[in-house]
Amino acid sequence: MNIGAHISIAGGIQKAPERAHDLGCEAMQIFTRSPQGGPAPIITGEICDEFKIQKSKFNIREVFVHTPYYINFASANNRIRYGSVKAVRDELERASLIGAKYVMTHLGSAGELSKNDADEKVVEMLKKTLEGYNGSAELLIENSAGAGNIIGAKFSQIAEIIKKINHEKLTGVCLDTQHSWASGYDWQNFENTARTIDEEIGIEKIKLIHANDSQSDLASRKDRHEHVGKGKIGLTAFEKIIGFAKEKNIDVILETEHDKVKEDIETLKRLSK
Questions:
Q1: Cα angle at 176 between 40 and 4, to 5 degrees?
Q2: What is the pLDDT of residues 149-167, one digit of tens each?
Q3: pLDDT digit string (tens) for 1-39?
Q4: Number of compact structural domains in the chain
Q5: Are the C-beta atoms of 167 and 123 separated by less than 8 Å?
Q6: Could you tell me if residue 272 is inside a domain?
Q7: pLDDT cut 90: percent of the chain above it
Q8: Is 267 within the bounds of a domain?
Q9: Model-level pTM?
Q10: Which residue, 53, 1, 54, 4, is CA-closest to 26?
Q11: Which residues constitute the domain of residue 135?
């Protein structure tokens, strides 16, 4: 198990490994482009080589890539849906180029579509995303917090989508503790929640964990991250979550505010001992 955080790529992706090292990261997550949109900066051979040199120099064992925020495979708007396909496929190719292990993405929101229509669109678009893809980076679906008509708040729904796509590069889920808490998965009752997730999708499908505490209440359907042990989930629950991650050798990434993310990393490392 490696512990890390989401790291800024200001000045280029090759700057991220040193920042991660300074925070005490063993692994890191990045965007390879602006998460708000716009053209992705080209990853030249020189940038790619320098990134790998810096990753090795600062002993960052694994790299993960998060897709932009605007991804919506369930949109009724063709431009948004197909734009999402292109963006996620680009991220898979870019992640493979730099040696990242996983790319994680949210699925989007149904909007005016019915649940069944939205689910069908998501499956169709993900199939298009992965068509002909043979890069090294694998795709993970990240569970969502459940606001509005969001797709992927329940692991049972994600399991059905993965089953229908049946692609070797769509390997599992990135489990976000805060999003799952906001969707009604009670981490304070760890054993029961772990059993529920196992029944819904299979524990073996958890490939990465976003370890975020929550500002919002259980089943609030609000995406509000908090520093570990400072929120509603609490330190006792995180001790069990980290124990589980260590046992299963699942890497853990923090997505908390950078004012105290170094403390969060230290907390998780302490809990893992």
A1: 70
A2: 899 999 999 999 999 999 9
A3: 999 999 999 999 999 999 999 999 999 999 999 999 888
A4: 1
A5: no
A6: no
A7: 93
A8: no
A9: 0.97
A10: 4
A11: 3-254
* Section 37-51 average pLDDT: 95
Which residues make Cβ contacts (< 8 Å) with residue 32, sequence separation at least 6? 9, 13, 40, 41, 43, 65, 91, 94, 95, 98
Nearest of 109, 7, 134 to residue 58 by alpha carbon:
7
- Asked if residue 102 lies in contact with residue 138, where contact means CB atoms within 8 angstroms, the answer is yes
CATH code for position 171: 3.20.20.150
Residue 270: inside a domain, yes or no? Answer: no
Quick one: CA torsion of 11, 12, 15, 20, rounded to 10 degrees? 110
Nearest to 211 by CA among 183, 185, 178, 187: 178
Question: How far out from the chain centre does Cα 39 lie?
Answer: 22
The 3-state DSSP class for residue 136 equals coil
Say if strands 225-226 and 213-214 run parallel, antiparallel, or are unpaired. Answer: antiparallel
Q: Compute how many other C-beta atoms are within 10 angstroms of the C-beta atom of residue 148.
A: 11
Residue 259 lies in a domain: no
